[in-house]
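Fold it.
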Amino acid sequence: MENYQVNQDGFYGDFGGAYIPEILYGCVENLKNNYLKIIQSNNFKKEFEQLLHDYVGRPSPLYYAHRLSEKYGCRIYLKREDLNHTGAHKINNTIGQILLAKRLGKKRIIAETGAGQHGVATATVCALMNMECIVYMGKTDVERQHINVQKMQMLGATVYPVTSGNMTLKDATNEAIRDWCCHPSDTHYIIGSTVGPHPYPDLVARLQSVISEEIKKQLLEKEGRDYPDYLIACVGGGSNAAGTIYHYLDNENVKIVLAEAGGKGVDSGLSAATIQLGKIGIIHGARTLVMQNEDGQIEEPYSISAGLDYPGIGPIHANLSAVGRAQVLAINDNEALDSAFELTRTEGIIPALESAHALGALRKIKFNPDDIVVLTISGRGDKDMDTYINYYHQK
């Protein structure tokens, strides 16, 4: 059976690797040589699991969505990452990475953020572990997600609004990498998704794999078997998706559906559907699918959701799509917004806009009545209320 995990050179099929400036070679190499030893050690596992349990509030519930199931004619379970401390899946990764940074002797933490969820999660663990925290965030996103900026500041982080490019996630990542180049020895860069140079995509996927680990146990309890027929998750860089599917990659009974941001439509010129639109290129240290023009310049992505408008995609997902293991659907802004309102009205759960894209995939799949579907609600919708209310008033 095909193995969908990373190989020893840091590649998933044709995608991945580490394409980095010379100055960062030492710290990326250090991370690569030590991350598995550290995260597989008993003392790391013990501290990580205890914090996930006592601080984050895991395991997150697997909730049977009765009315949503009725509507789509199958059995839909929601993996409730929105109920974690800080309101999203991002905290799973930041807890793990700060424990890793401590063991590597780093003193200063930097991060990039789009929707602000990863920024808040990073600021949270830095406050917890008494570490200096610098977060880079595009100016456009600072305005769109001002509550999250205020949270980061309250937690003691310094937030730098980035004014280059489109002033969104890509540009924030560029600035974070620049900072890292200036302080390579004492700084750990907590990347928030399954992107960046090897070993980051694998590191983040492993830390997030607690999601699928829990799904297996919870499904066994509820359905008498530990795997669903469908796994559905939204994908920007792809960390909540990687965590959701990690322990199921080799189980061919499980269909994987990834929902990316279609924006105003895949052919509209305003989209972030990287798997549909991207060509192979290099972005932020990895070879993957990238939205680019004929000259290889990166195209600016667009999505109503600040967490999905990234012009690349995690190499793990680029590979799963290329080899046909995952089905990738582009969900447009309006489909995501309608699906968010549908969830609030049928189940009383307000999802993050990112997660609403995963919900948007439900209407595009023909289910059988006995299909078991697990859909990850990657975050809660507090940060998106302005967008939701504006949409509600326009209708």
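The radius of gyration is 19 Å.
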